[in-house]
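In response to reviewer comment 3 from the previous cycle, which asked for concrete evidence that the modeling workflow produces usable outputs, we include below a single protein chain processed end to end. The sequence was submitted unchanged, and the resulting structure tokens are shown without manual editing.
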Amino acid sequence: MTFKEYIETEKEKLGEMNKSEKIAYFKEYYLKVCIAALVILALLVWFLIDMGKNMRPTVVTGGVLNVHITSEGATFLREDYMKSLGKNEKTHNIEFASYILLDQSEPQSYAIFQAELLSGQYNYLITDKAGMEYIAQMECAGDMNEILDQDLKDRLSSDMAYAKSGENGTNIAAAIDISDTAFSKEYITSNDKAYFVVTGKIEDDESAIAVLKYILNKQ
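The workflow returned the following structure tokens.
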């Protein structure tokens, strides 16, 4: 039987039924098929949207470690920063983890974060002193004396935060103390100092430094 003949046969069957019989017939023979088709369609749409998002170039990847940032602060580092670059979420992506916590009572939190660091997941992190020291210890903190240009080094010389890097304990400028910036005063709600770390496992330091400048220039 061709598809056209099948349709005609079904029309004849339905034409001989009253309303309640049609509903019962639909439920018995077609309801499951329709539900399955809708599920497949939804999965297909989700897959296409997700694929489209993954194909967008990522501008920068950042996160907040062990300190609390307001939702407005997260917006400042995502949507507002995107707009400042003249880009939008339809064509570009900013990855931002708004709350990463290292909990000594949960060793897996350290293992997960360590794996993320070593895989180069972040361009930058905003963290407390303990987080900054841990990142440096893992040799994943870029040395600000080597990363920053001379103008920024002169401007931020008093805000350099030092920590020991690696097993040899080499002292490096592991972060910039941003506690006294307008950004931290408005958006960081925890009482700890806030440090900006450029993660040394990411080759693209420029994208992280661009965010640092954006934070420093907030009025």
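Strands lie at 58-65, 93-100, 124-127, 160-165, 170-177, 195-198. We consider this sufficient to address the reviewer's concern, and the full set will be provided in the supplementary archive.
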